[in-house]
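Incident review: delayed structure delivery

Summary: a single-chain prediction request sat in the queue longer than the usual turnaround. Root cause was a stuck worker, restarted by the on-call engineer. No data loss occurred. The affected request and its eventual output are reproduced below so the record is complete for anyone auditing the incident later.

Affected input:
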Amino acid sequence: MYRPRLRWAAVPAIVAIVALLAAFASLPVAALQIRRGDVVTIGRDEVVGDTAILAQSAIIEGTVDGDLVIASTEAQITGTVNGRLFWAGEQLTIGGTVADSVYAAGVGLSTGPNASIGRDLAMLGLYLTVAPGSSVGQDVLMAGNQAVVEGTVQRDVRFTGLALQIRGPVGAATISRQAALPGTEASAHPIASQSEPEGGANQALLPGRGPGELLSAAWAGAW
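Output delivered after worker restart:
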């Protein structure tokens, strides 16, 4: 009988929360710009350095040449963040480029069809949607209710929650908890350019598991 390794179930959540809380401490205070208000906008022609935003709504249309920390009810990223993005709130929409990783904690996160995340996407929340045409350069880590991954994930999708759909090319998929629920669809389409030996990381659906379970054959070595 398959028993999930729950000691790893909280990893994405820990990553998101700890990274968000540590973000202010990791940024040089002298160089940090802090913006507050009901609506905070970085305009299309603006270029700023490391920035922290506290707002009801944050709109990033320009360029952040460094890390961006946002605490807001909603946030829209249509410009470029050349460092890391840390966010906490209700709804985050990424339609632009984040050169490094995204660490998010909130209700929901969605990417647009042209979104590009250079490294990891780590999310603690109710839902995550990675749209067709968007890309994640390394891993997607999600702890929450449901995730739909239709874009390209160059490495792994690691998921803890209730419902996962993978419709785009990914390196491998790992579900650590509640993998097979009635009515839950779980499917994976490994990236064609990746080649793994039989039983390797691209073998997302293992023999002997329920049809709704996605597992990584390389689980033991993943961490």
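Verification: The longest helix spans residues 11-26.
Action items: add queue-age alerting; document worker restart procedure.
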